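TICKET #2291
ISSUE: user wants both folds in one file
ATTACHMENT 1:
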Amino acid sequence: MRKKYKNISPYLGAGFIALSLLSIAPAHAQSAAALLEKGMDFYGQGGHLDESLATYNKLINRFSNSQDPEERYNVAQALYNKNIVLVTLQRYKEALSTCNELIKRYGDAQDPEIQRVIAQALYSKGNILCELLNQRQQAQEVFTEIINRFSDTRDPQIQRVVNKAKVYLMVRQ
Protein backbone atom coordinates (compact mmCIF):
# COMPACT_ATOMS: atom_id res chain seq x y z
CA MET A 1 0.00 0.00 0.00
CA ARG A 2 1.27 3.42 -0.91
CA LYS A 3 1.76 5.98 1.73
CA LYS A 4 -0.32 9.09 1.15
CA TYR A 5 1.53 12.36 1.15
CA LYS A 6 -0.03 15.68 1.69
CA ASN A 7 -0.28 17.61 -1.55
CA ILE A 8 2.51 20.15 -1.43
CA SER A 9 2.06 21.67 -4.86
CA PRO A 10 0.39 24.85 -3.48
CA TYR A 11 3.41 25.33 -1.23
CA LEU A 12 5.91 24.39 -3.89
CA GLY A 13 5.03 27.46 -5.94
CA ALA A 14 5.63 29.83 -3.05
CA GLY A 15 8.79 28.01 -2.03
CA PHE A 16 10.09 27.95 -5.55
CA ILE A 17 9.48 31.69 -5.92
CA ALA A 18 11.23 32.38 -2.60
CA LEU A 19 14.22 30.24 -3.63
CA SER A 20 14.29 31.95 -6.99
CA LEU A 21 14.36 35.36 -5.36
CA LEU A 22 17.18 34.27 -3.10
CA SER A 23 19.18 33.08 -6.06
CA ILE A 24 18.52 36.32 -7.95
CA ALA A 25 19.76 38.58 -5.16
CA PRO A 26 23.43 37.55 -5.38
CA ALA A 27 23.34 37.75 -9.18
CA HIS A 28 21.84 41.23 -8.90
CA ALA A 29 24.65 42.27 -6.56
CA GLN A 30 27.22 40.70 -8.86
CA SER A 31 25.72 42.72 -11.66
CA ALA A 32 26.42 45.94 -9.76
CA ALA A 33 29.94 44.74 -8.97
CA ALA A 34 30.43 43.68 -12.59
CA LEU A 35 29.37 47.12 -13.83
CA LEU A 36 31.73 48.78 -11.36
CA GLU A 37 34.59 46.63 -12.60
CA LYS A 38 33.65 47.26 -16.23
CA GLY A 39 33.72 51.02 -15.61
CA MET A 40 37.16 50.72 -14.03
CA ASP A 41 38.36 48.62 -16.97
CA PHE A 42 37.20 51.27 -19.44
CA TYR A 43 38.93 53.97 -17.40
CA GLY A 44 42.13 51.94 -17.24
CA GLN A 45 42.15 51.66 -21.01
CA GLY A 46 42.67 55.42 -21.21
CA GLY A 47 40.81 56.32 -24.36
CA HIS A 48 37.49 54.91 -23.21
CA LEU A 49 36.46 57.58 -20.73
CA ASP A 50 33.01 58.10 -22.24
CA GLU A 51 32.32 54.35 -21.98
CA SER A 52 33.54 54.40 -18.39
CA LEU A 53 31.22 57.31 -17.59
CA ALA A 54 28.28 55.61 -19.31
CA THR A 55 28.91 52.40 -17.36
CA TYR A 56 29.01 54.23 -14.03
CA ASN A 57 25.81 56.10 -14.92
CA LYS A 58 24.15 52.79 -15.79
CA LEU A 59 25.14 51.31 -12.43
CA ILE A 60 24.02 54.42 -10.53
CA ASN A 61 20.67 54.55 -12.31
CA ARG A 62 19.98 50.84 -11.96
CA PHE A 63 20.94 50.40 -8.31
CA SER A 64 20.50 53.82 -6.71
CA ASN A 65 17.42 52.80 -4.72
CA SER A 66 18.84 49.51 -3.49
CA GLN A 67 19.02 48.84 0.23
CA ASP A 68 21.43 45.93 -0.25
CA PRO A 69 24.72 46.88 1.48
CA GLU A 70 26.91 45.57 -1.34
CA GLU A 71 24.91 47.43 -3.98
CA ARG A 72 24.92 50.62 -1.90
CA TYR A 73 28.71 50.39 -1.70
CA ASN A 74 28.94 49.80 -5.47
CA VAL A 75 26.77 52.87 -6.16
CA ALA A 76 28.86 54.98 -3.78
CA GLN A 77 32.08 53.78 -5.42
CA ALA A 78 30.61 54.35 -8.89
CA LEU A 79 29.77 57.94 -7.95
CA TYR A 80 33.30 58.47 -6.68
CA ASN A 81 34.80 56.90 -9.80
CA LYS A 82 32.49 58.99 -11.99
CA ASN A 83 33.93 62.06 -10.26
CA ILE A 84 37.46 60.91 -11.20
CA VAL A 85 36.46 60.37 -14.84
CA LEU A 86 34.84 63.81 -14.98
CA VAL A 87 38.00 65.43 -13.60
CA THR A 88 40.03 63.57 -16.23
CA LEU A 89 37.65 64.94 -18.87
CA GLN A 90 38.15 68.43 -17.33
CA ARG A 91 34.46 68.67 -16.48
CA TYR A 92 35.19 70.05 -13.04
CA LYS A 93 31.78 71.45 -12.10
CA GLU A 94 30.13 68.12 -12.96
CA ALA A 95 32.78 66.33 -10.90
CA LEU A 96 32.05 68.62 -7.97
CA SER A 97 28.32 68.00 -8.39
CA THR A 98 28.96 64.25 -8.39
CA CYS A 99 30.95 64.52 -5.14
CA ASN A 100 28.10 66.50 -3.60
CA GLU A 101 25.57 63.90 -4.73
CA LEU A 102 27.64 61.11 -3.20
CA ILE A 103 28.08 62.96 0.09
CA LYS A 104 24.39 63.88 0.25
CA ARG A 105 23.24 60.36 -0.55
CA TYR A 106 25.64 58.37 1.64
CA GLY A 107 27.17 60.86 4.04
CA ASP A 108 25.33 59.42 7.04
CA ALA A 109 26.00 55.78 6.15
CA GLN A 110 27.57 53.79 8.96
CA ASP A 111 29.10 51.16 6.67
CA PRO A 112 32.90 51.47 7.05
CA GLU A 113 33.52 50.86 3.34
CA ILE A 114 31.10 53.61 2.38
CA GLN A 115 32.68 55.91 4.98
CA ARG A 116 36.04 55.38 3.24
CA VAL A 117 34.44 56.42 -0.07
CA ILE A 118 32.89 59.50 1.60
CA ALA A 119 36.26 60.53 3.03
CA GLN A 120 37.87 60.18 -0.41
CA ALA A 121 35.00 62.09 -2.04
CA LEU A 122 35.37 64.95 0.43
CA TYR A 123 39.09 65.09 -0.26
CA SER A 124 38.44 65.05 -4.01
CA LYS A 125 35.88 67.82 -3.56
CA GLY A 126 38.46 69.90 -1.69
CA ASN A 127 41.03 69.35 -4.43
CA ILE A 128 38.58 70.28 -7.16
CA LEU A 129 37.61 73.46 -5.31
CA CYS A 130 41.20 74.48 -4.61
CA GLU A 131 43.27 73.31 -7.52
CA LEU A 132 40.80 73.35 -10.40
CA LEU A 133 38.18 75.96 -9.55
CA ASN A 134 40.41 78.28 -7.49
CA GLN A 135 37.94 78.39 -4.59
CA ARG A 136 40.42 78.10 -1.74
CA GLN A 137 38.13 79.23 1.09
CA GLN A 138 35.54 76.56 0.25
CA ALA A 139 38.33 74.00 -0.07
CA GLN A 140 39.62 74.89 3.41
CA GLU A 141 36.10 74.36 4.77
CA VAL A 142 35.95 70.91 3.15
CA PHE A 143 39.36 69.89 4.49
CA THR A 144 38.35 71.13 7.94
CA GLU A 145 35.15 69.06 7.65
CA ILE A 146 37.24 65.97 6.90
CA ILE A 147 39.34 66.54 10.02
CA ASN A 148 36.34 67.26 12.25
CA ARG A 149 34.31 64.39 10.92
CA PHE A 150 36.90 61.62 10.75
CA SER A 151 39.68 62.43 13.25
CA ASP A 152 38.41 59.88 15.77
CA THR A 153 38.26 56.99 13.34
CA ARG A 154 40.68 54.12 13.67
CA ASP A 155 40.35 53.13 10.02
CA PRO A 156 43.86 53.48 8.49
CA GLN A 157 42.55 54.45 5.04
CA ILE A 158 40.38 57.21 6.45
CA GLN A 159 43.23 58.36 8.70
CA ARG A 160 45.42 58.80 5.61
CA VAL A 161 42.75 61.10 4.15
CA VAL A 162 42.57 63.02 7.44
CA ASN A 163 46.35 63.40 7.45
CA LYS A 164 46.35 64.68 3.85
CA ALA A 165 43.68 67.22 4.82
CA LYS A 166 45.81 68.35 7.77
CA VAL A 167 48.85 68.75 5.53
CA TYR A 168 46.79 70.74 3.04
CA LEU A 169 45.64 73.12 5.76
CA MET A 170 49.16 73.53 7.16
CA VAL A 171 50.66 74.26 3.74
CA ARG A 172 47.91 76.70 2.74
CA GLN A 173 48.04 78.79 5.90
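ATTACHMENT 2:
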Amino acid sequence: MTTGYNNCQETYTNNRVQTANRVELVIMLYEGAIAFINKAIESMHYSSYDKVNSNIHRALDIIVELRMTLNMEAGEVSNKLETIYEFIEEQLRSANLKKEKTGLNEAKAVIENLLTAWKQVLLSDTDNPPNESSFSNLLNGFSMKA
Protein backbone atom coordinates (compact mmCIF):
# COMPACT_ATOMS: atom_id res chain seq x y z
CA MET A 1 0.00 0.00 0.00
CA THR A 2 2.77 2.41 0.87
CA THR A 3 4.55 1.68 -2.40
CA GLY A 4 1.55 2.86 -4.40
CA TYR A 5 1.40 6.06 -2.40
CA ASN A 6 5.14 6.63 -2.83
CA ASN A 7 4.83 6.10 -6.59
CA CYS A 8 1.99 8.62 -6.76
CA GLN A 9 3.96 11.12 -4.70
CA GLU A 10 7.04 10.65 -6.87
CA THR A 11 4.99 11.11 -10.06
CA TYR A 12 3.40 14.27 -8.63
CA THR A 13 6.79 15.69 -7.67
CA ASN A 14 8.28 14.88 -11.09
CA ASN A 15 5.36 16.56 -12.85
CA ARG A 16 5.59 19.59 -10.58
CA VAL A 17 9.31 19.99 -11.30
CA GLN A 18 8.93 19.48 -15.05
CA THR A 19 6.16 22.08 -15.38
CA ALA A 20 7.65 24.69 -13.03
CA ASN A 21 9.16 27.96 -14.19
CA ARG A 22 12.56 29.12 -12.91
CA VAL A 23 11.17 30.99 -9.91
CA GLU A 24 9.02 28.02 -8.88
CA LEU A 25 12.08 25.74 -9.10
CA VAL A 26 14.07 28.01 -6.80
CA ILE A 27 11.14 28.04 -4.36
CA MET A 28 11.02 24.23 -4.41
CA LEU A 29 14.75 24.05 -3.74
CA TYR A 30 14.45 26.40 -0.76
CA GLU A 31 11.55 24.33 0.57
CA GLY A 32 13.67 21.19 0.17
CA ALA A 33 16.63 22.72 2.00
CA ILE A 34 14.35 23.81 4.85
CA ALA A 35 12.85 20.30 5.05
CA PHE A 36 16.32 18.72 5.29
CA ILE A 37 17.37 21.21 7.96
CA ASN A 38 14.22 20.41 9.94
CA LYS A 39 15.02 16.69 9.67
CA ALA A 40 18.58 17.37 10.85
CA ILE A 41 17.28 19.32 13.85
CA GLU A 42 14.87 16.52 14.70
CA SER A 43 17.60 13.89 14.31
CA MET A 44 19.88 15.94 16.56
CA HIS A 45 17.21 15.81 19.25
CA TYR A 46 17.47 12.01 19.19
CA SER A 47 21.29 12.02 18.87
CA SER A 48 21.00 10.28 15.47
CA TYR A 49 24.15 11.93 14.20
CA ASP A 50 24.38 9.83 11.04
CA LYS A 51 20.95 11.23 10.04
CA VAL A 52 21.99 14.72 11.13
CA ASN A 53 25.03 14.49 8.86
CA SER A 54 23.04 13.09 5.94
CA ASN A 55 20.33 15.74 6.12
CA ILE A 56 22.80 18.59 6.51
CA HIS A 57 24.68 17.34 3.46
CA ARG A 58 21.46 17.20 1.46
CA ALA A 59 20.64 20.80 2.44
CA LEU A 60 24.22 21.79 1.58
CA ASP A 61 23.94 20.12 -1.83
CA ILE A 62 20.91 22.28 -2.60
CA ILE A 63 22.58 25.53 -1.51
CA VAL A 64 25.82 24.71 -3.35
CA GLU A 65 23.83 23.97 -6.51
CA LEU A 66 21.94 27.25 -6.19
CA ARG A 67 25.22 29.12 -5.76
CA MET A 68 26.90 27.35 -8.67
CA THR A 69 24.06 28.21 -11.04
CA LEU A 70 24.11 31.95 -10.29
CA ASN A 71 24.68 34.11 -13.34
CA MET A 72 27.39 36.38 -11.95
CA GLU A 73 27.09 38.65 -14.98
CA ALA A 74 23.51 39.48 -13.97
CA GLY A 75 24.64 42.12 -11.50
CA GLU A 76 24.17 43.04 -7.87
CA VAL A 77 21.48 40.47 -7.08
CA SER A 78 23.77 37.57 -8.00
CA ASN A 79 26.57 39.01 -5.86
CA LYS A 80 24.22 39.40 -2.88
CA LEU A 81 22.85 35.89 -3.33
CA GLU A 82 26.34 34.43 -3.55
CA THR A 83 27.27 36.07 -0.25
CA ILE A 84 24.06 34.81 1.34
CA TYR A 85 24.58 31.27 0.04
CA GLU A 86 28.17 31.26 1.35
CA PHE A 87 26.88 32.33 4.77
CA ILE A 88 24.31 29.52 4.74
CA GLU A 89 26.98 26.99 3.76
CA GLU A 90 29.22 28.16 6.63
CA GLN A 91 26.37 27.85 9.13
CA LEU A 92 25.47 24.34 7.94
CA ARG A 93 29.07 23.12 7.98
CA SER A 94 29.67 24.58 11.43
CA ALA A 95 26.46 23.02 12.76
CA ASN A 96 27.48 19.66 11.35
CA LEU A 97 30.97 19.86 12.80
CA LYS A 98 29.83 21.02 16.25
CA LYS A 99 26.53 19.08 16.25
CA GLU A 100 24.75 22.24 17.44
CA LYS A 101 21.34 23.52 16.43
CA THR A 102 22.37 27.19 16.40
CA GLY A 103 23.89 27.10 12.93
CA LEU A 104 20.98 25.07 11.61
CA ASN A 105 18.50 27.60 12.95
CA GLU A 106 20.53 30.50 11.51
CA ALA A 107 20.71 28.86 8.08
CA LYS A 108 17.02 27.98 8.18
CA ALA A 109 16.03 31.54 9.08
CA VAL A 110 18.01 32.96 6.16
CA ILE A 111 16.55 30.43 3.72
CA GLU A 112 13.05 31.19 5.00
CA ASN A 113 13.67 34.91 4.31
CA LEU A 114 14.85 34.06 0.79
CA LEU A 115 11.83 31.82 0.29
CA THR A 116 9.51 34.68 1.29
CA ALA A 117 11.27 37.04 -1.12
CA TRP A 118 11.04 34.60 -4.04
CA LYS A 119 7.37 33.93 -3.30
CA GLN A 120 6.75 37.67 -3.45
CA VAL A 121 8.49 37.81 -6.83
CA LEU A 122 6.36 34.90 -8.04
CA LEU A 123 3.14 36.54 -6.87
CA SER A 124 4.05 39.91 -8.37
CA ASP A 125 4.40 38.64 -11.93
CA THR A 126 4.14 35.01 -12.94
CA ASP A 127 4.69 35.69 -16.65
CA ASN A 128 8.04 37.42 -16.37
CA PRO A 129 11.15 36.23 -14.55
CA PRO A 130 12.41 38.50 -11.78
CA ASN A 131 14.62 41.33 -12.93
CA GLU A 132 17.43 43.10 -11.12
CA SER A 133 15.29 45.82 -9.57
CA SER A 134 12.35 43.65 -8.47
CA PHE A 135 14.55 41.21 -6.58
CA SER A 136 17.10 43.78 -5.42
CA ASN A 137 14.31 45.68 -3.65
CA LEU A 138 13.42 42.52 -1.74
CA LEU A 139 17.04 41.91 -0.73
CA ASN A 140 17.62 45.45 0.52
CA GLY A 141 17.79 45.39 4.27
CA PHE A 142 18.39 41.64 4.28
CA SER A 143 20.69 40.86 7.14
CA MET A 144 22.58 37.86 8.44
CA LYS A 145 24.04 37.31 11.86
CA ALA A 146 27.73 36.56 11.84
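RESOLUTION: both attachments delivered.
EXTRA DETAIL ON ATTACHMENT 2: Residues 21-139 form a domain with the Four Helix Bundle (Hemerythrin (Met), subunit A) fold (CATH 1.20.120.340).
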